[in-house]
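Predict structure. Input: Transmembrane protein, 222 residues.
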Amino acid sequence: MARLTHPPHVFVRGIALPRPAILLSVFCLICALGLPAKAEAHSGSLSGSHTGIPIPSLSHGEMAVIVPYYGRIIALASSASDTDESFRRVLNFAQIQRAYCLWGIMPGSVGDEDSPFNECSHAYLAAAKMALLQMRTMKNEMVPAGDLVSEIDGALVRNNLSLILCRFSEEGFNTADLIRPRLTGIFLHVKSLAATLLALMTAGAALWWTARLLRTKPDTVN
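Output follows.
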């Protein structure tokens, strides 16, 4: 009786994928975040293309206060009816830019200016602020947008955060220039590196257990 063994593959919809290939794909996805969005790397408000819509800079203190309101701002902006192309492009930039920032889940992305995700956090929150201020001029969104602005202003005053600056506080942004965190910055930032390694180990463990669950019992041949 001979026993046929199966190679260390994960079967997805009938296609056998080697485990190392899957892990490599996960690593390449993280590496892609380190690639610049354009040939000219964004290193300030004077670099990159300015064919898009300029977005005013955002102070470090404002960023910390706006973060909890981001979801409400985007929800209100997404439901707005009397919009124009400029507003929709700013809203689109905010949502895409936040995805490039890994949806704000990296530790220190907002509060730590040394984080490789801090600059892109400035970008998407600056766009959210711009969208909120634009909604104050819209007929249907004027009242709820005004209420949100009042809440944010109150939080800034109570916490004395409006004047707190970092090296990105003077940087303006543009809808034509997406900001991506650089891979080298992740390796140099302890919290980001730890979170990335933890994510890779978790993904690897999940794939390993999935492979065990999907692996069929060895066939036997008489």
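The mean pLDDT is 74.
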